[in-house]
Amino acid sequence: MFINNNPMSNKAASVFFDQKFSETYDERNRNLSPIFKNLHFLLGLVLADLPVNAHILCVGVGTGEEIIALSAAHPDWQFTGIEPSVPMAGICKEKIQEIGLADRCTILNGYLSDVDQGANYDAVLCLLVTHFITDHNERQLMFNDMYARLKEGGYLINADISDNMSSPQFQSILEKWKVMHKHSGASEQALENMEKALATHVSVVSKDKMESFLRGAGFALPVQFFQSLLIRAWYSKKE
């Protein structure tokens, strides 16, 4: 949720999520928990038709909140999480161990390219990750790679910061976005620089562009099922 001050590629994004940032990540987002609880609830509904023993790949798993949310309702699901930040992956492993999920979860430090090739997963989750990839070709390749790792009939669920920043409505929703960040503890300087950060430090693209990435990967019908201010989420089924 919190945005870095430097443009990032897939490989560089992990630098921002250092030990200090990772240790405070959950606390920073605590005031935003209603957003994520709603998103996680809807994830469960979208994925309700998966097999009882489904295997889920979580790309950029962070501190593991989506695994924790989904595992409670699906006791036979298995999870693999991949996370480029060493501190974030470590915190995720600790949380998984503490709540007794270690036998159902594999947490790896690395990138999507480090996950075994092949269509091995019933669903791939990628939540608030790809907007950190500022190169559009690299971003498209990431969606392609997630598609390739899905079984036939499997779902990709992605959530990203997405909007048309040149639209007449953008300035209005940006002000509400700032209110949200103020509620979660952002400094006045961060609020003042918010629009610049969205324009230059991450890749905020329109709904149509996001769906073109998904179609370009091979998904015929991306469906937006969630929006909370600038956060949108889609599910896409591999047919």
UniProtKB/TrEMBL annotation:
Record domain Methyltransferase: where: 56-154
Pfam families in UniProt: Methyltransf_25
Keyword entries, A-Z: Methyltransferase, Transferase
Keyword Transcription: no
Gene3D superfamilies per record: Vaccinia Virus protein VP39 (3.40.50.150)
Lineage top rank: taxon: Bacteria
InterPro entries: Methyltransf_25, SAM-dependent_MTases_sf
GO BP annotations, alphabetical order: methylation
GO MF: methyltransferase activity
The keyword Methyltransferase is assigned to this record: yes
PANTHER family: METHYLTRANSFERASE TYPE 11, TRANS-ACONITATE 2-METHYLTRANSFERASE-RELATED
The protein's name in its UniProt record: Methyltransferase domain-containing protein
